[in-house]
Every structure is written in C-alpha cells, then in structure tokens.
Amino acid sequence: MRRILAALIACLIISVPCSTKEPDAASGILANALDFSKPPVLPKVESLSPEMIESSIKRGIDFLIEDQNPNGSWGSPTRTKSLNIYAPVPGAHHAFRTATTALCISALIETQSADPAAVKALERGEQWLLENLAQLRRASGDALYNVWGHAYSIQALVRMHKRHESDNELKKQIVNLIEMQYDKLTRYESVDGGWGYYDFRYEARKPTSSSISFVNGTVLIAFAEAKAIGVPPPERIVKRAIAALMRQQKPDFTYLYGEYLQYQPMRGINRPGGSLGRSQCCNCALRYWGDKQITDNVVKNWLYRLYVRNGWLDIGRKRPVPHESWMQVAGYFYYYGHYYAGLSLKLLPDDQQAPYQTMLAELMLDRQEKDGSWWDYPLYDYHQPYGTGFALMTLQRCLPNPSPLTEKEN
Predict the structure, then answer these.
(1) In this predicted model, what pLDDT tens digit does every residue of 220-260 receive, in sequence order?
(2) 116 preceded by cis ω (within 30°)?
(3) Of all residues in the chain, what percent carry a pLDDT higher than 90?
(4) Distance from C-alpha of 189 to C-alpha of 271, rounded to nearest angstrom
(5) pLDDT over 50 at 98, yes or no
(6) What is the DSSP string of 160-178?
(7) Measured CA angle at 107 (ends 104, 112), to 5 deg
(8) CA distances (Å), 26 to each of 4, 136, 337, in order?
(9) Percent of the chain scored above 70 by pLDDT?
(10) DSSP states of 215-248 as a string?
(11) What is the number of other CB atoms lying within 10 angstroms of the CB of residue 51?
(12) Which domains does the chain have, with CATH numbers?
C-alpha cells in the first residue's frame, strides 16, 4: 500500500493536465518576453503606510503566541483529513514540526517584538529547538522531509546566534547544531548532488532522489547565512548543489521543478507560471553564492512578475490536493515564494526597494486571515504557523528603509 501511495504522489506532479497558455496581465503592461537588460516598467501601486504593515505584523505575532504548543513547538499531526499528503509516522511529522517551529522562531526574532508574551514564546521555541533538533532524521526509505527541517533550523540558529551575541556558551552550542545539520544534509544529499524530499527509486542509504530545484535553493540560502556568521558549510556539497540547480535553470531564469523533468521543460509546472513560486528562491540562492548572471534587473523583473501574474500562485492557494491547480501549482508554493521574494528585494540597493516592498506588502495584507494568521495549504496543523512565519518575515522586509538622515538622528 505504501508503494502505491508513493507512486500516486509522484504521478500528481507530472500528470495533472493544465493549460500552458499564460494570460495577459490586466494592466496590459506585461510583455510576452522578459528583457533582463533593463528593469521592468512598474504598474502604479498605492503606497501603504508603515503603520498598516506594523499592525498586520502584530496580529500575526499574536497568532503565533496563541497557537504555540505547550512544549514550545508549533504545529502538530492533528486536524487530519482524507486528502493528507504521504507522511510516514512518526518521522515525517518530526520534520514538519521542526521546520515549522524553526520558521516561527526566525519570524519572532526578525520582528523583534517587545511584547513580553512574544519574548516568552520565542524563548520557549528556542529551547524546544535546542533540545529536539539533534533527533531529526530521515522518516523512511522514500520520505526525506527532514531536509526542510535541517535547512530552516540552520536559518533559525543563525538568527539565534546573533540574538545571543554575548552568551558564548550558547553560541558554541548553536554552532555545534549548525555543523550537525551540515552532517545530516551531507548524509541525505542525492547521488546527483543537491537534495530531494522523496526517493521513489531505490530507497538507498545514499538517497537516489531526484534533485529538486527549490530544495537546493532553500538549503543554499541557509548555508550562505551560516557562512556569514563564520560557520562555513562543506565546500564540495555546496558546489554539487549549485551544479544541480544550474542544470535545472532555463534561459528566462525559471527552473524545472526537479531534475527528473529535464526532458519535459515545457510542461506547465516548468513554465514561468509553474515556476513563479520557486524562481525567487533559486535566483536568490545563486546570487548569494556569487552568480553574476543574477543581476539586479533579473531580480526586479521576477519581483514584478510575481506581482502582476500572482494569480498563477493565488488560484492554487488553499486547494487541498497538491498540484491540482493550473500550471500544476500546489498551494504550499504561495507564502514560500513570497518569503524568498522578500529576501530577493533586499539584494537591491536601498533606494530601489520601495516599489517592490509595496507590491509584496499589498499581497500579504490582503490575504491575512481574521485570526491574524496566513495559510496556503491545509497540512494537518502545520499550515497556519508556517504560513504565518513566512508572511511575517516577508512583511518585515516590506517596511520602509530608514533614510540616512533618520539613521543619523537616531
């Protein structure tokens, strides 16, 4: 039965019929082909006040405080439904909970709330991660969801390292845990380089999983952040992951979903609309690692495209079956893609970020739920906290940059 379920999941990614014709933008501004030699002509977007963004952030923080588990983590294998994705117990849920908790920790650190309840929630989350991360590993021969937990935990640990700057003993523990994640990601690296989250081929000790573009991007960004605080990742693993990602890059800076689709580059999921939720991550990762082809104009054009063609992602949001939407988009691409758009806009000079900040903030504010959360795909009880973590970190990067005069006055 497990083999049958695994095969069905794999088929979902490559067999869902969909149109490959992309609609024109309502504004009529979007050209059929992108010209990366120049920045895009931006649509008129009404600016948002910092107070509106800060109010939304506060509501999101309040949700995380309320939603935290008694043990300090976020997310659980509850709120089940008949359409849940393949998740062998208990390892898959260890991975989901670890990744979700790491995202919530990162969000609370970045938003820097002075609310005592938020500080307490952050401290409890940090303690849970420190105590439980070492136990995270592969769930089964065919399910490697743990790669998400390793990657997002590295990012959370980097932020914790900066937050506890004066605590040398804790910083040493954090560095040890980051290096442990390097070891795990080396162990679970695909034979082809990079990482996948399923191994439906041979379930070998060294995973024979197909390299997945956005998993590579996610891990490479976490690696770059850790390197920046003086904890460099294994050079060989980085080079192999970059090579695997480059093999999946198309001339328009879209990316194949996974290397197993290399001979189907024009399938819906590999076209611009299907790549919209992962181009931001992959381009950002390559830029972090020194790829000069990822210019500011590449970043700007894909930030613009994310906004004007957001419908490709939004129409898949909240659908319960992965990849059932047009361009085979899955709901869980939504806030993931916008988080990496937030990272991407910070690659631009400070004085060129404002219009892209406004566009991203508008999308996030429009989609916040009544309870203060954000969610894009019903995944047991992980979707609201992980969606909220992503959205909070996106909005934090949408706040206006202080002017040099303001910085001087402060």
Answers:
(1) 999 999 999 999 999 999 999 999 999 999 999 999 999 99
(2) no
(3) 86
(4) 26
(5) yes
(6) HHHHTTT-HHHHHHHHHHH
(7) 130
(8) 43, 46, 22
(9) 90
(10) HHHHHHHHHHHHHHTT-PPPHHHHHHHHHHHHHT
(11) 8
(12) 46-402 (1.50.10.20)
**Whose CA is closest to 218, among 263, 131, 280?**
280
Q: Which residue has the tokens 């957001």?
A: 310
The first and second tokens of residue 304, run together, are: 């613009």
Name 218's Cβ contacts closer than 8 Å, sequence gap at least 6.
Answer: 148, 151, 152, 281, 285
Structure tokens at 216: 């590579």
Q: Position 128: which residue type?
A: W
Take residue 314 and report the two structure tokens written for it. 């939004």
> At 256, which amino acid appears?
L
> What is the total residue count of the chain?
410
Report whether 193 contacts 211 (CB < 8 A): yes
Whole-number Cα distances in Å, 407 to 47, 52, 116, 167: 22, 22, 27, 28
pLDDT in tens, 251-296: 999 999 999 999 999 999 999 999 999 999 999 999 999 999 999 9
pLDDT in tens, 48-76: 999 999 999 999 999 999 999 999 999 99
